[in-house]
Design brief:
By secondary structure, the protein is mainly alpha-helical. It has 6 helices and no strands. The protein has one domain. α1 runs antiparallel to α6, α3 packs antiparallel against α4 and α4 runs antiparallel to α6.
Length: 142
């Protein structure tokens, strides 16, 4: 793994963990309590593990998604669209579909807001970490 990969990983993890913690457990704590969704003893290490896995995958994916973009901005917009929709599809939709909560629409709204905020912060940082990188095709091994 190269330096840019690890910088991309940190660009994902370092803002995502505090943002997730502050969003869910401080700023909108009352809102989530009213949704009757969270357990009393949130297991923070599971959230950190989830974000670690996501950070590894999104850092690996970023240069592959943006490589053919006409400009760095176009690449970042492309990645934002892909990553935010993908994340929303595996964090927001299945939770709304499976779990009891006081308001599905309220949950959808607040989690959609979180996903958009998260990727609005993370994608420019990923672009900065990967700036100027041109992926070379991997050699074919016999």
């Amino acid at each position: 793994m190269n330096r840019r990969f690890w910088l991309g990983f940190l660009a994902y993890l370092l803002p995502t963990f505090p943002l997730g913690y502050v969003w869910h457990l401080v700023v909108f704590k009352t809102t989530y309590e009213q949704l009757e969704l969270f357990r009393d003893d949130v297991i923070i290490p599971f959230g950190l593990l989830s974000m670690t896995i996501q950070g590894l995958l999104f850092s690996w994916l970023f240069p592959r998604v943006t490589a053919s973009a006409a400009s760095p901005v176009q690449g970042a917009v492309r990645f934002f669209a892909l990553a935010s929709v993908l994340a929303w599809s595996f964090t927001t939709l299945p939770v709304a579909a499976k779990y009891r909560m006081a308001s599905v629409s309220g949950f959808m709204a607040i989690e959609t807001g979180f996903t958009l905020a998260q990727y609005a912060i993370v994608v420019p940082l990923l672009a900065l970490a990967w700036r100027g990188a041109v992926l070379q095709p991997e050699p074919v091994r016999a």
